[in-house]
Structure formats: C-alpha cells, structure tokens
Write a structure and sequence with these properties.
Number of strands: 0
Largest sheet: none
Distance between the termini: 64 Å
Structural class: mainly alpha
Number of helices: 20
Shape: elongated
C-alpha cells in the first residue's frame, strides 16, 4: 500500500492536475491514517469540483478523525445538500450527536430510517437523542426497536435499564441488566447497577454479592469499593472489607481506596492506621475523588490527636458527610443520566468534634452507572487543579520531614 501512495505522489509531482490520481491518493491517505495529508488533497479537489458530494463526504470523515466535529458537520451537510444518500445522512447524524445537537440529529436519523427501517444502530442513536431531549418514552421505543433488530445490543438494554432505574421501576431495570449479563457475563457495570438496586431495596447480602462480582470483573471500579465499604461498616464485616481493600491496594495505590481503608480504621478506633491511610490518600490526589479539603481536614485532626497521644473510640454508626461535602457532591456529575442525589440529614460525630467534615459516605445517595461514563476521571482537570494537588502533596512531605 505504501508503494501505491508513493507511486501516486510521484505521478502528482509530474502532473499536479491529474485529478484522478489525487482522488485515489486522498482515499489511500485517509484509509492509512494520514489524515492531514488527505485533508489537503481533498480540499484541493473541492476547489475544482465543488458539486462533488463524495469529496465533501470524505472530507467529513477526515475531520471526524481529526476530532474537528464542527468542520465534519459542515462537510457532511454539504454532501447531503448535493446528494442525500443514506451514508451521508448517517454520518451527519453521528457528528450532531458528538456536538450534542440532539434535536437536529433526530430528523436526520429518521430520514435514514425511511430508506433503511432495519438499521438498529440508527434506532439506538435516536434513543440517545430522545434521552437528551427528555422524551423518555420515545427513547424507550427507539431502544426497544434497536434490540428487536439486534438482540445482542447490550448498550440499548443498558440505556433502557437506566431509564427504568431512574424512574424507580427497578424490576424492569433489573430485567434488562440480566439480559446484558446473558449476552456479556463479564460486564461489570451491569453487576454494579444490580447491586445499587438491591442496596436501595434493602437487600444487603444481594448487593454485596453483586459488588464482589463487579470487582471480580473490574478490579479498578472505585464506586464498587466505596459502596461495599459503606455496607461492610454498617454490617460490621470489618475483616472482610479490610482484606478486600488491602488486596486492591496491592494492585493500585489509589487515593479513593486509601480513603475507604482510612474510614474502616476510623470506624474500629485505630487512630494510627486511620492517620497513615489518610496520608496515603492525600499522596494520591489524582485518584482521590472524595473532597480533598475534607480529607485534608481529617488528616490534620488525626495528626493532632496522635501528637497528644489521644485515642479514638470505635464507632457504632457509619458517618454521613456534612453540609460542606453535600454541596460539593451535588455539583459532581457521576453520569449524564444519573438521578440527582438526595440530601441526607447530618449526623454529629463526637469523636473528632462538631466541626469535622467527612468524605462522601451518604446514606440516601443514588448509585448507578451508564455506558458513556468517562473512564479517565482526570482527563479534563485544569492546570490549576494539578498545581493545587501538587501543593497539597508537598505539605504532606513537609509533615513527614518534621516527624
């Protein structure tokens, strides 16, 4: 293939006006990942053939690969204006979804279905658009059509389940999660959401079993560890959760895992281990999703108690986070379609004083995951956030030096 590209480039060096060679070269460059070079050749051709829909379509593909979705949209729209072919329309709809232009995407996908009523992917995309325009019944219809065409479309089942779960129809939600697991038995998110349903319904043993299944299939699912820690503390299954968290930390020095471990040791009254794990949590700021200021406040309080040779009493109840952490938690979106969290009543904790704040172990919190949840939690962190985290880590290092 490389020789073909070089051959065509040689032809164009001798004859830049050989449009057929340039067209073939553009496609070869596009198919082999040379997107910028393909863009240059296609733009050259468009100047001479402004009515050629294929050129605009291929240019749209180039811009999609370059993640320039606005230019991709413009190119596909031009292609559709010149020739409303199914492929052109479908790609235009996809780009509108990327741009979150849901209402504009709906008629485009409907147009595709006029020529191909058995396009399951098109129904799935329609469902996504309807979900984002708060038309849940239409979304359910679209997802149902998607799975009737493709019974193995686990994402369509997942979004149907999510709609039902958010509406409190947990039996229908669970039914769809079971279907997902029939198709893909190792799909950890389905286990997690079944755990959240069981937990909400008070089926604690069932919730624990599903959470362990979640971790078995995805040992990096921090939300599963958080909920399992909370349940274990309520049940008093201390040895079990300690083993689970320590095993997980052998694979990944994660800030959230250290904080969960700290809360377990706080619960049993082990001040030294509580302090050490808070310190480790703060040393891993990029994987700590609990409110950093609150964890830092706990750390400073534990350090002060250690300095005074004080002890902490074992607890009898799981602490809930207070007003400060509620406000911060409400601002954080776990997923695009997750229900808003209910605010719990505050509970006082005498062991560290009335002013202490705690991380997010809320009683009434809704748990659930959706397929579009970001895998990289820190991808969008600003430069300032990173600098702030680095400063916090420096403070801990200074504390260690003093000790």
């Amino acid at each position: 293939m490389g020789n073909d590209i070089e051959t065509l480039q040689g032809i164009l060096q001798n004859d830049p006006s050989n449009f057929q060679a340039r067209r073939e070269l553009s496609i070869l460059l596009l198919n082999n990942g040379f997107n910028e070079e393909a863009e240059g050749n296609l733009r050259y051709l468009v100047k001479y053939f402004p009515e050629d829909a294929e050129l605009y379509y291929n240019l749209g593909i180039v811009y999609e690969k370059l993640k320039d979705f606005q230019k991709a949209k413009d190119s596909y729209q031009k292609a559709v204006e010149l020739s409303p072919q199914e492929d052109f329309l479908y790609n235009l709809g996809d780009v509108l979804v990327e741009l979150n232009e849901w209402k504009d995407a709906i008629p485009v996908f409907k147009k595709v279905l006029e020529t191909d009523p058995n396009d399951g992917n098109c129904y799935f995309n329609l469902g996504i658009c309807y979900m984002n325009t708060d038309e849940k019944n239409l979304a359910l219809d679209a997802f149902q059509k998607a799975v009737s065409i493709n019974p193995k479309d686990i994402y369509a089942y997942f979004y149907m389940a999510n709609i039902y779960q958010n509406d409190g129809l947990t039996n229908f939600a669970a039914e769809n999660y079971y279907k997902i697991l029939e198709i893909s038995p190792d799909y950890s998110w389905a286990y997690f959401n079944l755990a959240s349903i069981a937990y909400k319904n008070g089926n604690i043993d069932e919730a624990k079993d599903y959470l362990k299944k979640t971790i078995e299939h995805n040992s990096f699912d921090m939300e599963a560890y958080k909920l399992l820690t909370k349940i274990s503390l309520k049940e008093g299954s201390i040895d079990e959760i300690l083993e689970i968290l320590h095993t997980a930390l052998e694979k990944d020095g994660n800030g959230d895992l250290y904080y969960c471990l700290a809360r377990v040791y706080k619960f049993v009254g082990d001040l030294e281990e509580y302090y050490e794990n808070l310190k480790n949590a703060l040393k891993n700021p990029y994987t700590l999703t609990f409110e950093h200021d609150i964890v830092k406040q706990e750390y400073e309080s534990a350090k002060e108690k250690l300095g005074k040779n004080e002890e902490i009493e074992p607890e009898h109840e799981v602490e809930e986070y207070s007003e400060l952490s509620e406000e911060n938690s409400d601002e954080e979106e776990r997923g695009e379609y997750t229900e808003e969290e209910n605010e719990p009543e505050n509970e006082e904790d005498d062991s560290f004083g009335d002013d202490e704040e705690y991380g997010d172990f809320s009683e009434e919190e809704e748990y659930g995951k959706i397929p579009e949840e970001s895998e990289d939690e820190f991808e969008d962190e600003s430069e300032d956030d990173w600098e702030a985290d680095s400063t916090e880590d420096d403070l801990i290092e200074e504390d260690e030096t003093e000790e």
